[in-house]
UniProtKB/TrEMBL annotation:
InterPro entries: SAM-dependent_MTases_sf, tRNA_(Gua-N-7)_MeTrfase_Trmb, tRNA_methyltr_TrmB_bact. Keywords: Methyltransferase, S-adenosyl-L-methionine, Transferase, tRNA processing. This is tRNA (guanine-N(7)-)-methyltransferase. It catalyses: guanosine(46) in tRNA + S-adenosyl-L-methionine = N(7)-methylguanosine(46) in tRNA + S-adenosyl-L-homocysteine. The lineage of its organism: Bacteria, Pseudomonadati, Pseudomonadota, Gammaproteobacteria, Lysobacterales. The gene is trmB. Gene3D superfamilies: Vaccinia Virus protein VP39. Residues 150-155 are annotated as: Interaction with RNA.
């Protein structure tokens, strides 16, 4: 997943909140199979952004704890999580069509019923579609680190964003962040430790061991072989 922001004010949002865009659009070309996924499976798995609060219980046909993954990439981790955690429902948000198509094909192949997907900006989805107090958990794994210092402000983990996310969490809701870029891990820690709505689940200033529910993806394995570290952070609503 990649993330950036601009400074347009959203007239529909009370007060001024600096606009954070959770992506830079680098669409890439979809394969015929990925395009076919949109034709055949979007009606089942997709949620069209309408700028209106969603009733997710109606979408899933049940009331269950709701997990949001922002920037699911190719969907490998989300597909695994939803298959191994059938008691919960999953919302995935990703702007890149090839990844959305790939995941829909994987979900359809096993007739998954506990996943719905947005192909839209995550900030706008949170602002307008996710009702307050809705999410049991939010996951942001390996977001674009924006390595260059002048681009650091484009990182999605910023005070305004984590405050917005906090407002959408259920009591004791969990936020799980992961990155393989140490400067971004330090930035995440700094932002989260200063966020009044959140508390570190392991104690102030602590990183977490990789939880069992976050699988090691192909992307991560490649990085580990190159000697990259990985940092996980777990925070709960204070």
């Amino acid at each position: 997943m990649s993330d950036t922001h601009d400074h347009d004010q959203d007239a529909g949002h009370p007060g001024y909140m600096r606009r954070i865009r959770s992506f830079v659009l680098r669409e890439g070309r979809m394969t015929p199979a990925q395009q076919r996924a949109f034709d055949e499976h979007w009606a089942r798995y997709g949620i069209d952004y309408t700028r209106a609060p969603q009733d997710y219980a109606t979408r899933f046909g049940r009331t269950a704890p709701l997990v949001l993954e922002i920037g699911f990439g190719n969907g490998e981790a989300l597909a695994w999580a939803s298959e191994h955690d059938l008691a919960r429902d999953f919302i995935g948000v990703e702007v890149h069509g090839p990844g959305v198509g790939r995941l829909m094909n994987a979900l359809a192949a096993r007739d998954a019923s506990n996943v719905r997907l947005y192909k839209h900006d995550a900030v706008e989805v949170l602002e307008h579609e996710v009702p307050a107090g809705t999410l049991a958990e939010a996951r942001i794994w390996f977001p674009d680190p924006w390595h260059k210092k002048r681009h650091n402000k484009r990182r999605i983990i910023q005070p305004e964003f984590v405050a917005l996310l906090a407002s959408r969490m259920a009591p004791s809701g969990l936020l799980h962040l992961a990155t393989d870029w140490q400067p971004y891990a330090e930035h995440m820690l700094e932002v989260m430790e200063a966020a009044p709505a959140w508390r570190n689940d392991l104690g102030a200033g602590q990183y977490a061991e990789k939880p069992a529910w976050r699988i090691e993806t192909h992307f991560e394995r490649r990085g580990l072989k190159l000697g990259h570290g990985v940092w996980d952070l777990l925070y709960r609503i204070a």
